[in-house]
Each structure stands twice: as C-alpha cells, then as structure tokens.
Please model this.
Amino acid sequence: MTDYSRNTRSHTCSVRLNTASDVLTKTMSDLASILISERIIYLGMALASDDETRQSFSGGMNVTQLMIAQLLCLEYDDDDAPITIYINSSGSTDINSNAIGHENEAFAIYDTMRYLKAPVNTFCVGIAMGTATMLLSAGQVGKRASLPNASIILNQPYNYVAGSSTEINIQVEQLLISRSIMHEILSIHIGKSLQQIRADCNRIHHLTPYQAVQYGIIDSVIAGT
Model:
C-alpha cells in the first residue's frame, strides 16, 4: 500500500511565513519544483483548451503540456520509481458541466501515463469530474486512492456545436468519438461493461470515495490520523 502520509525525509521545504509578502513571493513554480523532486504531480486546474479559457481557469497555463512534460521528465529521471498524481480537477468542463476544453487534453495525459514504464499512482484530494475521473481510474491498480471527503463524478464529455449544418455534423461526430474513447478507457480500468459505463455517464453521477471504491474507480480511501 502506498504511504500517503507526510514525507519525513531529510529533504525539507523551508518556507518563511513571517509576512504576507513572504507567502506571496513563493511562486507556483517553486512549489511545483518541490513536488517534482518528490515525484509528485498536482493536477489542480481544469483542462482548458484555448488561450482565453486558460486565462480564466488556469492563469493562462497550458496544464496539459506541463503535466506531460513533468511525466516524461520523471520517467527519464528514474523509470522504475513511482509517480503520484494528485487530482483536484473538473476535467474538461467547469464545475457546472459547461465545456471549457476538448477531451483530447485528457486523452493526451492518459496516453502518456500508459506509455511510461514508471508506475503512476493517482490520488483524489478534492474533486475528480469527467475526464479527471477517467485519469484517476487509470492509475496503477492498488494505488488509486482518495481522501474521505472528496467528490468523484462521472459525466459525459460535453461541447457546444455551431456553424453550418456540415460543420455541426462534423463536431457532433467528433463528440461521439470522444465519448466512445472515454467510455472504453473507463470500462478497461473500472472493470465494468461498456453498456453500464454509458448508462452511468448519461447523467451526472456523484460518488463518495467509498462508493467509488465499490464502483472500481479507486482502490482505497485514506483517512486522516
């Protein structure tokens, strides 16, 4: 069983918290570097696709490119040591299921996870929704976990279609392909039939972490001490 307790190695993070400016000057890049040194990747944003949406939901950051780069970097560093992805993300939609990104963002991360030789553990720390739930389920079997008060949600890929009738048909076809891919991935890692996955994803399906264990999305719930 993976030990998710606080790391007590000699390597420590010394952050001065004497003033508000000390906190503000500790940048996200500094924090990411500290986590990477412990082979931890934190997915704490939605997977937005276009620049304008990224500015609203992820401070302009291309989360997908960053995660893939981090995964490949850690694989290059040591392809035997586990990588842990902490997930607190609504996936390719916002919290209200409005589309803000294309599912290909999540598929690219998923394919990279499966490409690596290094085992990838997954851990939900707040919310996993839609394609983020898909990534959560794709972790190393036995090493997929959640905190007890997290929310784990199954739902369909959504997108808005517009344009000429031909353009709309193309967009609808692509959306159906994305749904099919997502359902197949969930079926593989959860161990349920495609028919059941389709039925459960047809509506927004909320699960507690304990229900997610029974469903097969994760393997355990890690309670605090």
About this structure: Strands lie at 40-43, 83-89, 120-129, 144-146, 151-154, 205-207, 220-221.
